Queue: 4 jobs
Job 1
Amino acid sequence: MLLRTGNAKGRKMQDAEMDRKSLWMLSAGHLFTDLNQGALPAILPFLIRRAGLSYADAAGLAFAMALSSSIVQPLFGVWADSTTKNWLMPAGVFLACTALAFIGFVPDYGLMYLCATLSGVGIAAFHPEAARRANALAGKKKGAGLGIFSVGGNVGFALGPALMTPALLLFGTAGSALLFLPGIVMPFLLSRSIKETPQGIPALEKGGDPKALGGEKAQAPKDEWFEFSWLSVAVIIRSIVFYSVNTFLPLYWIYALHQSEAAGGAALAALCAMGAVSTLLGGMMADRIGANGVVKLGYVLLVPFLYLFARTTDLFWASVLLLPIAFALFSIASPMVLLGQSYLPGKVGFASGVTLGLAVSVGGLVAPLVGRYADDNGLPAAMALLSFIPIVGALVALTLKPPAATKR
């Protein structure tokens, strides 16, 4: 049921259509926001050389961005749920890019830490409101809509070092100024896209209030906090596996499979490329078999294929196994966000902040522990250990109940 509005076009979109143009613009904003998370690791070696930072100092900058972007994100989600705050999206991109752009120019470590922290706050500001907006713009095809939104983040994360490294090689740490360009242009384009969005889409006009979908007399769906918390465990498990694979895949290619550094980089690039396609596929599948079904399928596939990958020393089979691993890891990303939003229909922004930020950040905190285990026991042993972690995620996924809203 919809709010009574004279705008037939808006009603039609809310009922069935997907605003693909606005979704792809939102995905572009996601790309240039998460670009900063990929760019910072590329900047760190140049900061070490210029400012004489220790490895611990460099790791501290990465930790500052990860912590600020994850801890603050649910708070922005709660704020977005109270009423629509469209300005958070362009402001988030602006702060994320421009703060990190300054990191190559500031003279001391304290200011570098501030730049990384503020960039993380910008990342946190963008995601909850943008994910809530993607949910509304998707109409009935919410899985595909969130897939389009999510793929922007995947591509941005992968493009960060690819775009930043040449600029740094040419200009040194001053190459971080490249980030000023998306930081200025993308907020302008996002603001324009927001203004051009058709009116009459209640979920965009009333924040996270479920009554907006059915008028004052509509009964708000109940928030399912237990199921949402259980889902968060599955999100954390996926995050641990994703960060660890992303971190150690090139090293595994080099030291376990005896390939070149270029081949290791190519393997990671291939994983990201297959992941981008899998993200879109996962979203479309969620509209057909349900987000719950996609998460179950992804985890059931991840367990055996990651186990086989960790035990092969053959380059051909390792390369072949990357395909199902990429599908399993990336296809469940946007369905998990959609599930979180469905479990908490009255707090869509908060649910987005947790599934996109807080729970995901745990993977970044666990990856160094996996690295320490690899130092002591070797990369093959670390990868073997990692292959058992998805078993826990699969058990959680298989016991997740469908959201009550989908049973109506």
Job 2
Amino acid sequence: MQALRPHRIVHQADWIAGHLSGRFDVSDENNALKTGYDPVARAWPGWIAATGMDVRMLPDVVAAGAVTGQCTTAAAQALGLPSNALMVAGTTDGCAAFLATGADKPGDGVTSLGSTLVLKLLSNTPMFAPQFGIYSHRIGHVWLVGGASNTGGTALLQHFTAAQMKALEPRLIAERELSLGYYPLPGIGERFPINDPALVTRVTPRPGDDAEFLQGLLEGIAAVEALGYQRLAEIGGPKLISLRAVGGGAANAAWTQIRQRKLCVPFLRARSDAAAAGVARLALKAMTGAA
């Protein structure tokens, strides 16, 4: 039996788009970043070929929002789409969520409060600082800079169920700072704003009151968020001027108050928290020039 050999490198988004368009040889700049694409030079770096890899397996890379072709007749019929439906290069889920919020000025930040804590800040220039886990995605002529921390909802679920946290929320006193100094992590290791694979969670001492313990955990995650935006400013990023939040944690009113107290910038309501809305805006702008 003949051994199977790699034929082409595709990301999940590329694979889905390929089934719609018939093209499996194209990717967007943001997804391609994960396989080593250089968004500043807008090229695959030479070190990839130097490893001996067959670079013909790599896709052609286009800007997020670029028109890449048309939907195939078969796909259009199966999905009830117009026969002339255009295919547009997308972006990662995190970038799409940023675009959905309506943030559009340098200094606008978006925090995703999901299973992990993800920060993105709109900047006119890219920033890369692997020592802090900071990287940049290119969207048109601007950049989304930031990083992803391991803290977040998964770390909270090490101590409370979602139902327990909901029940404790009315007992949180958001205007009072407990200053327990927590750094909640779900396991060993952190990526951003501290890049340390050996970092361990810090959630002691534990108060006897579960509400105080939960508030200490939320304060700890908010402190990591504040440190993340501070890191971005330290390496030359724009000063944070406003903040929007997406993800399940954004609905927690007490946590929002705690975060406002630590970040000291206007908190604005997201236009949408659906990543699908973000890529729809990206496609609309690419094809019509409308935001």
Job 3
Amino acid sequence: MSDEATTPPPIPPKDANPDFELEREMTEKLKTAHAEIGRELSKVIVGQKEVVEQLLIALLSGGHCLLTGAPGLAKTLLVSTLSKVFDLSFHRIQFTPDLMPSDITGTELLEENADGTRELVFSKGPIFANMILADEINRTPPKTQAALLEAMQEKQVSVAGTTLELEKPFFVLATQNPIEMEGTYPLPEAQLDRFMFNIVIDYLSEDDEVSVVQQTTGAGAEPVNKIFSGEDLKKCHEVVKRVPIAEDVVRYAVRIAASTRPNREGTSDYINEWVNWGAGTRAGQFLVLGAKTRALLQGRAHVTFEDIREMVGPVLRHRVLVNYRAEAEGITVDKVIEYLVESTPEKA
């Protein structure tokens, strides 16, 4: 037998691996772009650093977000500015009690051709954009809320027996007002679970509010520059999934999610006493995805327990349902989550 037949082929260098090249390219790009994105957003958005960070993590992970906050806290401005920084098409949908599903997805219209014949032509609705702001999503009936379900999960829309693919990347960022509950339709758990994060936007500090008033009553903000593109985002979604994570860290995320479920073996007494319903499997998935993205943004190629802990609040806030006893005792979801992080050990 000849030497040529028995000699194994040479191992290609890592640089020849297209996946490795993509990871290296996007990791380096994220390192430099993280600070740049923050600078561009700060031209328009004052303060809210934690909110901006969580939104960035969700977008770079490919997840949808629920934004909870009182009116006038610049939720719409924040989302529209993000779409400019990432060079994404943007549509805002005002959810009202009379909004119909076809107002979101689009409808067929009867149009007359030049020769006098008529045909049905599909007119696309505002759902056909990269970034959708579903403003006050809890003000519209469940039938219309459900029109977002397929789009959020499957990235497609079914109209008149035809399935249309949505352009990727595709994000839904929905806002809801936690104060004014009269005349609202709370989102069902099935739809809440499709949001990666529930991000709470609070009032600004006095200094930040002074800056906002000066900026909005003066000459106006500087124009925002594009930092990322839609193609960059799609590449980033692939890279995030390849970030290595130790099994112990994954188990920690899974234990935190599982610890929210009442009346199960090993569940803490305070969970059994205060919680009606806990988080499902998606919670663990989103904890890990968010932690991987946070690690990349900080220039690390590995995930730590601290990365998981930082994701617990936004991931679990809308997945843990407290009962009447907790409300009577003044126990909020955030307080339950705080206890949960303190009582869950890193290693079993």
Job 4
Amino acid sequence: MQAEERVAQFNSYFKRLREEIGKVIVGQDELVEDVIIAMVANGHVLLEGVPGLGKTLLVRTLAEAMDLEFSRIQFTPDLMPADIVGTNILVENEQGRREFQFQHGPVFANIVLADEINRATPKTQSAMLEAMQERSVTVAGAIRKLEQPFLVLATQNPLEMEGTYPLPEAQLDRFLFKLMVRFPTLEELGSIIDRTTGISDAHAVNVLDAATIIEMRTLSREVVVADHVKEFALKCVLATHPDSEYATPMARQYVRYGSSPRGAQSIIVAAKVRALLDGRFNVSFDDIKHVAKQTLRHRIILNFEGEAERIDQDAIVEDVMTGASKGDELPV
């Protein structure tokens, strides 16, 4: 199959999935697109928004639209790591002998919803680290691989902070995207009321399977990134570090720590998917700019002055996109 045909088929799959989710989710077009991009890019997503905006419904609908195994973990302060990854239990076999048997936890699924992840203790949150990074779980010295594709979509409430445990930077870094869930417009709110208070109950049906997702993922990795485009992405990441030669004045003033190398990896893999959605087999500067906020906002740690001034990390990223080290303009 020619490259043009593969790109067209990729867009057909993507469009079908997006339209199926749209049968249930009102508005939030950019949010839905970014979640699918992250899935194709083999990355996890952190959804942040106030209660009632449909974060959980979005994840459930995504699972319904694909023939994949779905599980939900409701994170609470009393949740233990074994409740997530599983544990060995003592059972009696056919011969009447007792032996340990591994009981799989809810993390053994293709799509895992980590609902209100910041309500669990750091010890429990850390149980997700290996699964998110290595796609495996280690219990009692035995490593068990997770079935692909594997995607974690975590939600957190930015308002009600009592009794919560902010995610550590090491875990935040495991998320490809951090997406902000906006409040619906007047028209969207009206459509939500019509869909949820009437007789009909909208739901999604399977339109893609695991093999198709892996096929889309493989194609995205084949997208070409020119050296000057890659250099632009890398300079943008370095510009978030206050002590870097590429740091912007805003980063030097308000940032304590900049993005990790995973930020650069995330920008590139997400930009490759964006290029395919635009019918191209090469990454452009616009692709890099389109995914910069989603990939960098949670990887920038503000200093005391930045916290006091309530500087938004998105403003830092915007500054990085337009400015560069030593007062020179970044290539565009």
